[in-house]
Task: inverse folding
């Protein structure tokens, strides 16, 4: 059972960590490249703000975004704003999401996200938690995958392993940090490949943030994962 209230509290804490760290940026550093190809740090913050509003749309029964083009245009529009405006927007949009999440609702209902993806409403707060944690890392301001909460790392690894489960282009793979194990890739009676390493390295590989050079692979080569 997913505890959406717990996850909303974790989102609030993660957002405060990000805002506190990003407050040290100035306008020049905000305009510098982030770790995401083609995006400045301003793009990352603009995306976080607009994503919060998009999830409010989903919770309230509206389309997540007007269109893919509108989503991209909004990020491009907001990316060059001064740092104080950006941080206020992230804070206020995050507050709107918290308010929407506090409204009594059927959290077991199915909701539609981008590109026809569906999920339970109860999982939306965790999806937002992933946005905040991973994009905090993407800002490249001293917060690394090793710094994310252990609970988040474990759950996001499980979430991403499930996302690639059954994918025909990913070999049957056992993923393990030495204590826990997850399965992903094509269905098979036995895994073809085992990928092992620290949770941060596994998370980085599954989330497309690291190439996986620090991981140990047995039974073949490290699988190439589809883009998220």
Result:
């Amino acid at each position: 059972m997913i505890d959406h209230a717990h996850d909303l509290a974790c989102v609030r804490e993660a957002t405060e960590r990000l805002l506190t760290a990003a407050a040290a940026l100035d306008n020049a550093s905000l305009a510098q490249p982030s770790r995401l190809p083609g995006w400045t740090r301003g793009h990352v913050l603009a995306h976080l703000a607009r994503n919060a509003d998009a999830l409010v749309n989903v919770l309230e029964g509206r389309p997540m975004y007007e269109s893919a083009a509108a989503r991209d245009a909004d990020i491009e529009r907001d990316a060059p704003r001064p740092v104080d405006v950006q941080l206020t927007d992230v804070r206020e949009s995050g507050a709107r999401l918290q308010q929407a999440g506090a409204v009594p609702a059927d959290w077991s209902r199915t909701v539609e996200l981008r590109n026809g993806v569906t999920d339970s409403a109860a999982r939306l707060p965790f999806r937002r938690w992933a946005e905040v944690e991973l994009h905090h890392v993407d800002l490249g301001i001293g917060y690394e995958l090793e710094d994310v909460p252990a609970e988040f790392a474990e759950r996001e690894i499980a979430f991403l392993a499930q996302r690639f489960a059954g994918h025909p282009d990913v070999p049957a793979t056992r993923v393990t940090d030495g204590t826990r194990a997850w399965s992903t890739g094509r269905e098979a009676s036995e895994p073809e490949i085992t990928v092992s390493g620290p949770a941060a390295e596994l998370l980085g590989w599954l989330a497309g943030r690291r190439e996986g050079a620090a991981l140990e692979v047995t039974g073949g080569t490290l699988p190439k994962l589809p883009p998220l």
